[in-house]
Amino acid sequence: VAKEAGRNNRKLYDIGMNAEKRHRAMLNDLMHGAIDRGEMHLVYQPQVEVRTGRIFAAEALLRWNHPGLGLIPPSTFVPIAEASGLIGRIGDWVLETACRQNRAWQQAGGEAITVSVNVSARQFMERDWAQTVGRVLAATGLDARFLDLEVTESMLMRDVGRAVATMRELKALGAQLSIDDFGTGYSNLSALKRFPVGRLKIDQSFVRDLASDENDRAIACAVISLGRSLGLRIIAEGVETEEQVAFLTLHGCDEVQGYHFGRPMEARDLARLLGCRDGPGRLPDQDGAAAE
Ligand code: C2E
Ligand code: MG
Ligand code: MG
Ligand code: MG
């Protein structure tokens, strides 16, 4: 009986896998042309300097709103696009849209901020990707210092030599580099020292339970002091409470991002916070097309 039950379970499991596979394949098909149909757009989440309360940057976050399926989260569709290779085109579009938007805010008289763009492993490992970034900067007119590229540890560890070379090219362009989700990857500390990054983002999984979890407090403190001793800036993500802000600042983390300071928002809403002029036709729309 046990054996039979085992077989049955096994069968159900296989059917489950197939359904999951089919669903992923369907989403991948639907993703073709999603940009051209206007189903994807970017929202922007403020990054704040605690001491002054100033918004100095915003992270661009991708949203896919499918007319039939509704809003599909990036945690679902980005890995699928990454696996199929679609992320290349989508990522290029994200980069260009974010740069154009940031330029549009500046042209509308907004306070100049940096825009942070998430880079996928696939994009980053593309040959001559730094040249693509250079072309996008030239095409959008955004000064490279207002672009920050967020990469992850696991991405960099795939091929350290190659990653270092690409990062040097990006630095040479004048762009900023951050390591996203820091602490969740395979942290090769000796490699970390070779990466020309300016900033670590403490992963939100360590921030969430700061109030109650002693281990998370220890990890957050360790990341902050590691980063500081390497001369890096540190930002905490997923900051939701005043208590978390107090703990993080007390321990030397001076940049924060999270619902406590602002949710990811439409470009026009951030434009308002940045003090952009909003006369008719002047307010940059979500993809920057309406600017000046
Ligand atoms: P991430 O880059 O680590 O982005 C942070 C995620 O945390 C975002 O989720 C953001 O909305 C969420 N978040 C921000 N503040 C808080 C908070 O206070 N509490 C909580 N619980 N969550 C908060 P989102 O937008 O769903 O994005 C998820 C992930 O998808 C991103 O993680 C990133 O890895 C990926 N992603 C998003 N946009 C892009 C993109 O344009 N390209 C690529 N390659 N990946 C992207
Ligand atoms: Mg990110
Ligand atoms: Mg992150
Ligand atoms: Mg992430």
UniProtKB/TrEMBL annotation:
Domain of life: Bacteria
The protein's name in its UniProt record: EAL domain-containing protein
Span of domain EAL: 24-278
